[in-house]
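chain below, 106 aa
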Amino acid sequence: MRIATPHWAAGAAAAIGARPAERIGARGARVLGDPGLPAAVPDQPVPSSAEPRTAPEVAAQALYGALAAAASASVGTALARGVHQTPSKGLVRVLGHRCPKRLERR
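prediction:
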């Protein structure tokens, strides 16, 4: 589902963008491009009244199942169970896999 900016918010943003555009134009600065672009209100898509094809709860459960299956395939079954149901050795194993990867990203 695509999230659209409410019309009132787009109008407020255009009003805010219009002030600097007017000041720049009043000072006689050379502007490359359309100086009225910050003050333009973008076209809003027409909201559809159609119901989602899949219920959000079903999609969330499917996503959780896919993530749990991927986690259990890569680390063992420690992530497929809840944290409270996993033995300490399993949690340490998961941390041992995650920490070096996260440290490499930094």
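The two ends are 33 Å apart (CA to CA). Residues 7-39 form one domain.
thats it, cya
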